[in-house]
UniProtKB/TrEMBL annotation:
GO terms for molecular function: endonuclease activity. InterPro entries: CRISPR-assoc_prot_Csy4, CRISPR-Cas6/Csy4_sf. This is Type I-F CRISPR-associated endoribonuclease Cas6/Csy4. It comes from the Bacteria. GO terms for biological process: maintenance of CRISPR repeat elements. It holds the Pfam family Cas_Csy4. The lineage of its organism: Bacteria, Pseudomonadati, Pseudomonadota, Gammaproteobacteria, Vibrionales. It comes from Photobacterium lutimaris.
Length: 185
């Protein structure tokens, strides 16, 4: 497992620039879907997502992509610079490096899961509680590349210590069982 040192974190900010016919959430969802496609072609656990403007039910119009491999970050930036969607609908920053003396805090952006009915037999109250909480969280709306179904990914941001492995899922997120400590810069 990769345990990044503070000096190993690099990040790119992607600010959505909304045309009149699209909203910030629609465009942000499209950005995340396109990033997911790019992440699928990279080595596993290469990139993690952050939402530096996360407040209440608002994810904001900036998506921050973290990585610990500078070469992969360079490749990601090049792909975005040559892709019409990122050129036309986003402002992409150069690659930034987290300062060596960064002392925290660290946060994890996790996919908040609601158990399905089958896995939650005998515990209906647990599912109901998690459904209520999920409705209060900001979310992404994405479409699966496999079955083409659209689904919501509720996002929970929590403060964590800086000693977790860098193992984001295919969408660049952590989970309740797999926290990803990202510098809150």
């Amino acid at each position: 497992m990769l345990y990044p040192k503070k000096t190993n974190f690099h990040y790119i900010d992607i600010r959505v620039v909304t045309p009149e016919e699209m909203s910030v959430p629609e465009l942000r969802n499209d950005v995340v879907s396109r990033l997911h496609d790019i992440f699928a072609d990279a080595p596993k656990h290469s990139f993690a997502l952050a939402f530096p403007e996360y407040r209440g039910q608002f994810l904001g119009d900036i998506i921050r992509v973290f990585g610990i491999d500078r070469v992969l970050m360079d490749m990601l930036l090049t792909q975005m610079q040559h892709h019409f969607f990122f050129r036309d609908y986003t402002d992409v920053s150069p690659i930034n490096t987290v300062p060596e003396d960064f002392k925290g805090p660290y946060v994890s952006y996790e996919r908040y899961r609601v158990p399905n009915l089958r896995s939650n037999e005998g515990k209906p109250h647990r599912r109901e509680k998690r459904l209520l909480k999920a409705k209060q969280l900001p979310h992404l709306k994405v479409t699966s590349n496999g079955n083409k179904k659209t689904f919501l990914i509720p996002i929970l941001m929590i403060e964590v210590d800086g000693k977790t492995p860098f193992t984001p899922n295919g969408y660049g997120l952590g989970s309740s069982a797999n926290k990803i400590a990202l510098p809150y810069v």
